[in-house]
Amino acid sequence: MPYGIIKVNRAKCLQCKEILISTKENFEVTCSCGKLTISGADGYLERTGKKGIDFQELTIFDFSNIPEEELSFPTEEEIEDIRKKYETE
Hints:
The chain is mostly beta strands and 89 residues long. It has one domain (5-88). The protein is 11% helix and 36% strand. It contains one helix and eight strands, in the order βββββββαβ. The strands form two sheets. Strands 1, 2, 6 and 7 form a four-stranded antiparallel β-sheet that branches. Strands 3-4-5-8 form a four-stranded mixed β-sheet. A hairpin with a 5-residue loop joins β3 (29-30) and β4. The longest helix has 10 residues, at 76-85. The mean pLDDT is 86.
């Protein structure tokens, strides 16, 4: 399943409303309330957090390198599965 190139890796914690931007791979950025942590920069998306975290994905992708017929996006169920996988206590 082809994905676009990550241009800006970012997410918003819906508890403290802080927008996090990951600029370096393997360097974690945590919001002020401590519920959401992101990392990966332009190499990968990683989201971790405390149990019950709610966040908004704000990553910007460039899909210009992928033919339109090959584009695919995760379903709502896949997004929820990913969110549950990365919840921690």
